Amino acid sequence: MPPSSRRRRRLHRVLGVGAGLATVGALVAALPAMANGNGPKNDKRYQDVQLLSFNDLHGNLEPPAGSSGRVTEVQKDGTVKTIDAGGVEYLATHLRKARKGHDFSVTAAAGDMVGASPLLSGLFHDEPTIEALNALNLDVTSVGNHEFDEGAKELARLRKGGCHPQDGCYTKGKDKFRGADFPYLTANVTDEKSGKPLLDPYFIWHKKDVKIGFIGVTLKGTPNIVTAEGVKGLKFGDEVETINKYAKELQKKGVQSIVALIHEGGVPVSGDYNYNCDSPGPGDGISGPIVDIAKRVSPAVDALVTGHTHQAYVCTIKDPAGQPRMVTSASSFGRLYTDTTLTYDRKTGDIARTAVASANHVVTRDVAKAADITALINKWNVIAAPIASRPIGYIAGEIGVEGTESPLGDLIADAQLAHAKSLDPTTELALMNPGGIRAPLTYPASGAEGDGVVTYGEAFTVQPFANTVNLVSLTGAQVITALQQQVSGANEAAPKILQISEGLTYTLDLTKSGAARVAVDSIKLNGKPIDPAATYRVAMNSFLAGGGDGFTELGNGKNMLIGSDDLAALEAYLKGNSSATAPYAVPKADRITIVK
């Protein structure tokens, strides 16, 4: 293909309607270079490599329900269109279609492929998701924090195969779980004793004379958001230091083209998947940890595929040498995938950075389902059906997860308070971490159960972690400190607002900063101010009781009493407070007064 045609093809890919806006500036800058002979004009010297990527699948094999299964797209006239998206049957079709015509195509992911998964995958320790990723021809992924939900040994089993040590084999014969066909990369996750990476730190993708190295890391703060047992014996190193270390090692091995798979991300100004992240200038439309990381990662790295924040973006952030570099993320739950063109220079073995183009694409549901993935899902659904379809309650409408305080957050906090009171009638309040609520409770039927019926499978999707409901004694001063930790310390840059049970109220003033955002004199329990000197019995899940999500004060509770798992608490609450004739009303989410 002549160089001019290739340039037009790339520009069309970047600017095409509905394809997601990529970094046009880098591409436009490349055109003079190409004309001058400094860019990809000789097809024998330059080879386009297609990099398909996604992140934060979280075992969502079936189309995600409610808001978790939608993306928004800004139109040319400024209006916003909502599109149903996701489902691995559709993701497979889109990826296979995208690969057509590309002899050099590699597929990579940036962590959290498993963990916090819906019942279809989570019930079987995510074996179904690994099988699906094998079928998708995933070449490599970094680990995310959720790969450690069940610990390092379970991660190793997912990689190598074999039956679960407690639950045994779910399938036999040819269907026996064989593990991942792709490497999980853990460059910054090391054994505390040996100092060696838990799994491979990098992977070299090699086709004919083209070599690209992939370095995989997860966020260094993983121990703060995973149970202590899950990361026992492991050390999580700095992302930038680790990537730079292994970039040098790859270069010594003759690999000059390098991509970093980083399970850490940022937040764009807009939630629309095709928002122009490079407006008004390169990288101006994004904030968060990935910005600092991108600015410090060695110029030897040619592109960054990121995740963790469940956001969609395609940005240009300059590397330490001042050169433009692509930084991408494809939202979550398989709703998007990123298509990036890396132009490989056979003479230098490096990527011609000015010729890199990238765009996010919606995994729409208007394409044919991939038959092999459908068969895989059906196989696991047959095994799961007796458990998944069991009704546990009734709701009057969708109970969503949107907002600083969400209706579903209120419901779960109330359910945990009720369970705790059954164990200790003196319990007065409950707190729930927002990250532990993974999906809304949708009103439309997911199967044959009927609208408004909550099944065990749907509830499992909401709370898949199998945390226990724990009771601890905290002073009023500690409760106040915990509420302040929502918006200060580890959570100041990205607040984590606890969902609270009925009776607890306070004002959150977002016009202020740090701990001052929590108006202490507004904190009341059943209409009475919290007494700093008094002792309160407080319910929360075991993750929070261990000080997770930066709530170190909650980890200082005394007189702990451990109850049932959180899903059992939700089931019991719905059974006791709803029926077919009197469904559970959607909570008002009015316990926290927000000042903006």
UniProtKB/TrEMBL annotation:
Calcineurin-like phosphoesterase domain boundaries: 54-311
Entry's Gene Ontology molecular function annotations: 5'-nucleotidase activity; nucleotide binding; UDP-sugar diphosphatase activity
Keyword terms, alphabetized: Hydrolase, Nucleotide-binding, Signal
Keyword Signal part of the UniProt annotation: yes
Residues annotated as domain 5'-Nucleotidase C-terminal: 402-553
Similarity field: Belongs to the 5'-nucleotidase family.
Annotated protein name in UniProt: 5'-nucleotidase
Organism of provenance: Streptomyces nodosus
